[in-house]
Design brief:
Largest sheet: 2 strands, parallel
Strand content: under 5%
Radius of gyration: 27 Å
Order of helices and strands: EHHEH
Number of helices: 3
Shape: rod-shaped
Distance between the termini: 111 Å
Number of domains: 1
Structural class: mainly alpha
Mean pLDDT: 85
Length: about 120
């Protein structure tokens, strides 16, 4: 029994070379920026831009039918962007809790009348 050769199909000479998506690279860089600046709450801006750009990059990669690469970069950038959002949310919650704790009285005084009859 003869087995067919397991090779890749031949490329047509007019087909373009597969190239990396520049939007995928931008998503990755924005995701890194979101992760780094997330604890300062400023990470929300690059995170939302990265998430919006990730949708466009994924659509472009799907439409390119294999001639545009970078799906892995988009996945990593998206995960980093969400991590930046989580860090920003955590920093915001901590800031609110610390702010509320500063409003609580210290309890140094008495809360009842010391002169009873």
């Amino acid at each position: 029994m003869a087995y067919p050769m397991l090779t890749q199909p031949l490329r047509h000479p007019a087909d373009p070379d597969p190239t990396a998506s520049t939007k995928a690279r931008a998503v990755l860089l924005l995701g890194i920026a979101a992760l780094v600046t997330g604890p300062m709450v400023g990470g929300l801006v690059p995170a939302w831009i990265a998430l919006a750009l990730a949708r466009q990059a994924t659509a472009d990669i799907d439409a390119a039918a294999g001639f545009l690469t970078g799906r892995r970069l988009v996945r990593i950038g998206t995960a980093l962007a969400w991590a930046g959002v989580a860090l920003a949310a955590t920093a915001l919650v901590l800031a609110v809790v610390i702010g509320l704790l500063h409003l609580v009285p210290t309890g140094a005084g008495q809360d009842f009348d010391s002169h009873t009859s």
